[in-house]
Amino acid sequence: MNYRRFVRAFVTFGLLFPLLAVAEVIHTQELGRNEVKFEIT
């Protein structure tokens, strides 16, 4: 079993997931502030 690949994938996921969560929060805050002026296609 290749532990190095597993650890690398786990670390990558651990770094990307918070970034995606923060981006989602910022995106929803921007939508709330703009009150959805245009439809998202």
Describe the structure.
This protein is mainly alpha-helical and 41 residues long. It has one domain. It is built from one helix and no strands. The longest helix has 32 residues. The radius of gyration is 17 Å and the shape is rod-shaped. The mean pLDDT is 83.
C-alpha geometry: rod-shaped
Name the beta content range.
Answer: under 5%
H/E element order = H
Distance between the amino and carboxyl termini? 44 Å
Which secondary-structure class do the elements indicate? mainly alpha
Number of β-strand runs: 0
Largest beta-sheet details: none
The tally of domains stands at 1
| Low-confidence sequence ranges | none
Protein name: Bacillolysin
Organism: Bacillus paranthracis
Quick summary:
This is Bacillolysin. This protein has 41 residues and is mostly helical.
Defining traits:
Bacillolysin; 41 residues; mainly alpha
Spell out the blueprint of helices and strands:
Blueprint: H1 3-34
